[in-house]
Amino acid sequence: MSAEINERPYYEFADRFYQERTSVAEDRVPVEGILELSRLCSLRCEHCYIGDARWTKDSRELSTQQMKELLDTLAAAGTLWLTFTGGEPLIRRDFREIWQYAKQKGFILILYTNATLFTPELGAFLALYPPQRIEVSIYGATAATYEAVTGVAGAWPRFLRG
Question: Are 83 and 36 in contact (CB under 8 A)?
Answer without folding.
Answer: no
